[in-house]
Amino acid sequence: MRVLVFTCLLGASLLVTSCADISKKTPRVPNWNQRVEQLSALTRWSASGKLAIRTQTQSETASLDWQQDGHNTHILLTGPLGLGATSIDSDRSTLQVSRDGDTRIFDISSAATSEATIGWDLPLQELPFWIRGLPYPRVSIEGQVFELGLLLQLQQQGWTITYENYALFDHFTLPTRVTIERNDTRARLIIRNWSDFSS
Fold first, then answer.
1. Which residues pair with 52 in a beta bridge?
2. Between the chain's N and C termini, which has fewer beta carbons within 10 Å?
């Protein structure tokens, strides 16, 4: 269950290994402020693709369907991960995980509560921002790498988020390959489609 919950939330979630020379790129962000404003105003969206999670003891993959509506997150995982369809719903204070008719609800109103209840220190607030290629605005940024107004690598809360590829969906340029990692945990996300945009 711990790996399942952690994987679901990272579904965002964010892929392939980082580019070897990413730290050598010269920051050029002529439209960064406009991009932050545009994507921050995007409060409703859907993303679908594949998720892979690797920890010190396990390696799993699953198909991912992520729907975001304001602070409300709905994630559906299907495939090998969790041995069946698993749905995850969060309003950033509670987490509901449903699988095979079994539903569990966790209090995740703080990182300390989350770690004590689930056993993981999860970046629950940050993920809907990271998956769009944005830093989470309420915590400090430890490092950023840009190219042509796009975020290539971000460091926040001890996590390293690497963006290997972007594509145009409607009039939004959004990530399609993302890696999120810290210590022995590594989540890789390939997003095939972004849709249902609304602000």
1. 61, 188
2. C
Q: Is the dihedral of CA 69, 51, 11, 89 positive or negative?
A: positive
Percent with pLDDT over 90 in the chain: 41
Q: DSSP assignment, residue 88?
A: E
Residue 81, helix vs strand vs coil? helix
Residue 59 CA to residue 166 CA, distance in Å, equals: 25
* Strands 72-78, 59-69: pairing kind: antiparallel
Whats the size of the chain, residue-wise?
199
pLDDT at 66 over 80: yes
CA 151/CA 146 separation, integer angstroms: 5
Strand partners, 155: 143, 160
More confidently predicted of 89 and 115: 89
**What class is the 2-15+25-187 domain?**
mainly beta
pLDDT tens digit sequence for 146-199: 988 899 999 999 999 999 999 999 889 999 999 999 988 888 999 999 999 986
43: Cβ–Cβ under 8 A, 6 or more apart, which residues?
Answer: 68, 69, 70, 198, 199
- Give which of 169, 177, 187 is closest to 151, Cα–Cα: 177
Region 109-134 average pLDDT: 68
Is 0.90 surpassed by the pTM of this model? no
